[in-house]
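From the pipeline queue, job 12 of 40. The input is one protein chain; the requested action is below.

Action: predict structure.
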Amino acid sequence: MLAHLKSIVQSKMRRRRLATCSKATLIITTIVVVVVALALLVALGGADSTTTTTSRRSPREALVIDTNRGGEETSDDDSLRPSSCHFHTCFDVLRCGLAESGRIGVHISPPSGRIVDATTGRLALDSTPSRQFAELLLAVESSPYYESNPDAACLVLPAVDTLNERRVDRRRVERVLRALPAWNRGVNHLLFNMIGESAGVGLSLVAGAGFTRTTYRIGYDVAIPVFHPVRVENPDEIVKRAWSTERPLLITALSPVDEHRIKDMKAADPGLVEIVRKCNPNENKRIFCVDGHGPIPYPEYLSKSSYCLVLSMSHLLDAMMMGCIPVILEDDFYLLPFSEVLDWKKASVTVLEEDVSQLVSILERVPPTVMKSMSMQTYFLWKTYMSSMEKIALTTLKIINDRVFTHAAWQYEDWNSSPDMERHPDANRVTRPPPLFIPLKPPQVDGFTAVILTYNRLEMLFKVIACVSQARSLSKVVIVWNNQDVSPPKSDLWPSISKPLVVVQTTANHLGNRFYPHAAIETEAVLNIDDDLFMLSGDELEFGYQVWREFPERLVGYPGRMHTWDKKSKTWKYEPEWVNEVSMVLSGAAFHHKFYSHAYTYMMPRAIRDWVDDHMNCEDIAINFLVSSYSRQPPIKVTPRKKFKCMNCTAKESLWSDPGHFHERNICFNHFVNVFGRMPLKAVEFRADPVLFKDNLPDYLKRYPSVRDV
């Protein structure tokens, strides 16, 4: 190409009769030719090489950047100073979209983890990423949060290892970060740091272990622990053995080097206080001695101590791994890991430095039962959130996710309640906040809307309509016609009742259509009722509605059911028989607030809705899961009715006569638990009945005379 360009230039020169050129002119001409050729090459394929390389490279290709572009960042907006950042000023929540899954997308930039400096052609950073950082990237890439498309991501995780600031040139790291294609002053970028000052770059979020109360940006940064891989065989067994015996009061001080702060305490109670530190402080090896003797098996040795006085953040996880309750000095300790969501008062003791000499007497006042509970909570927090780089990374993303999608956020109990391993084998739990706009008691005049899902059983449907119309508080009847092959009857063929009757024709035969928030539903109370349940009396329905008015955030129904945990199979079971407790009410006839129709349709995990529609089963279990997860309360069973009896239904028409029906319900039960990440149902021994329903009095004295033992 260069030779061709040169011949063109030379021919033009001949045509202009510039046959005689000085040596200087030839040199200038050659330079012009080279410049033109380079410009042509850039125009044809190399323009904006950084952008082109980034957009067309394969996922495992190195990212080529120009670090000369990573200069200082300035802004005329004083409100966007990095030190004053918080979630509502420096975080672009609009990038997160309106994901139905309620989950942020996290993109790793670049996915290959390799960044090449365009100037030198070598890796932009001299240091090799640590094993911990590689594990962190792998955990994010393997998680549900990962988003391969950078344009669809809410958060960007640069593949730049900043875990240990002592291993990297901070200025060089800053130049590399600022040269990333989507850096944009660090908006929605997340950096991890465990050793160092946990200072961000630009407006980036920081998940750091070096935060103090003055450097931590509340609601923006995330405090994480210092993690180092400690190989311990079966920590569960070690800790459980320690719990099985009564631990004597023993305080192990985990000291880096200087012990002046605990000298007086040890002198006063030498038998109750011991000091564990590195045998040789000048070595990097984690070989520890106790009171100058050793070496000792570390951290297993800590399991025999009740409390561990933690004087360095790097020893915190060692103590927690062995169920040793951390004792923290409040004066100068860094922010505790995940303190935004974890209640450290249940898993640690905090004292002022001036009270260290009295620490033994302070801890002696803690009852043994409380001490054991704190030890168990300490181990639970370590195992659930801090036992690996994967758990640290995912816990960090979950905290950020909860800030973005508050409707899917975990509550205090979800983060801090240690699950009963026999009843709750899965520790990943999800609840949602209760809808605050549900009134304490809806007005009587509004009444309720009866929603009847039907397919082709007209005779029984008409009986149900007649039955529902007997309830004094009925406001409207909405028929959800689920048969796409047959049109609903004409208006003059429907039963004549004193309340409006509306027919809604669906486009697909889905069982979840019964919970769709139809525009025809104008009342807050919704009665979902099957098209064959004409055995309920008007008094039963009216009483159920009045009870719902007292508890509008709950599901109120008639026959109750219970869930149980099978220890042998380690699965949940749906219990169809009558027992003393109730954790569900059948949605064949149940009252709920219309908000839950919206929540089922638009906020229920799609995996559950699809399962219900594909199997035409378990919609009642799904709605019970949903309502209990919001209300954190059990449903309310009303009246003595134990089951629905369809007198005119054949065995073929009744799902309850099929043995496979209940087997399938057990399957869906465990599937729903996996999707929710927890068991949201609550059990209760409670039933609401009319006050006089069993009294031997004339019916005219009773408000609901037809409610009897059914």
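Job complete. The domain at 444-676 is CATH 3.90.550.10 (Spore Coat Polysaccharide Biosynthesis Protein SpsA; Chain A).
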